[in-house]
Design goal:
mainly alpha, Homeodomain-like_sf, HTH_TetR, TetR family transcriptional regulator, Tetracycline Repressor, domain 2, DNA-binding, 9 helices, HTH-type_TetR-like_transc_reg
Length: 188
């Protein structure tokens, strides 16, 4: 059986996807580049050769996740007259990607201890905020409320209260997600 040789770009993408899964489970401090290498089926020195350091790989992952969130919002927005509920539909699709949103939370947590990660996390968060405003034309307060509710969803998805890996519901969960529609989707 012959193995298909991946291009450097394909291998880099494969490593970023493995890193998303690994960092989502273990966070920045709790994940070794060896963990990521094992998931991707490559050697740990190869990971370092491609990215330079665990920090650089984590920053790449944060930027990648932010880009996917932004692309989901762009894809969900109609050509003209986008509303927050259009972007909420895009966010609903992100909830299906089990590891995507938890890794973002780990990025925010790591921002407290690492200045470079912090600068990247803040820039990416700001980019999302401005994109919401650009696509919908809402006020800063309306965009802030939308993003705050999105963060609540991110936390709930990370705890598996909502999403594809949802656990059994407790009364507090049922009450908290009462602002969702009958299909379990967030509506601004």
């Amino acid at each position: 059986m012959t193995r298909t040789r991946l291009t450097a770009a394909e291998r880099s993408e494969q490593l970023v996807e493995a890193a998303i899964a690994a960092f989502a489970k273990g966070g920045y401090a709790g994940t070794a580049t060896d963990d990521i290498a094992r998931l991707a089926g490559v050697s740990q020195p190869y990971v370092i050769r491609l990215f330079g350091s665990k920090q650089a790989l984590f920053i790449t992952v944060i930027e990648h996740v932010s880009g996917r969130i932004q692309q989901a919002f762009r894809d969900a927005a109609p050509t003209e007259g986008a509303q927050l509920h259009d972007l909420a539909n895009g966010f609903d699709r992100l909830l299906e990607e089990r590891y995507l949103l938890p890794v973002l939370l780990h990025g925010f947590a790591a921002a407290n201890a690492d200045d470079e990660i912090g600068r990247t996390a803040r820039r990416c968060y700001g980019d999302i905020f401005y994109l919401v405003r650009e696509l919908t034309g809402v006020t800063a307060a309306e965009a802030s409320d939308f993003i705050a509710k999105g963060m609540l969803l991110t936390v709930l998805a990370s705890m598996r209260v909502i999403g594809p890996d949802q656990v059994e519901q407790s009364p507090w969960m049922t009450e908290m997600i009462g602002s969702f529609d009958h299909d379990g989707h967030y509506r601004p």
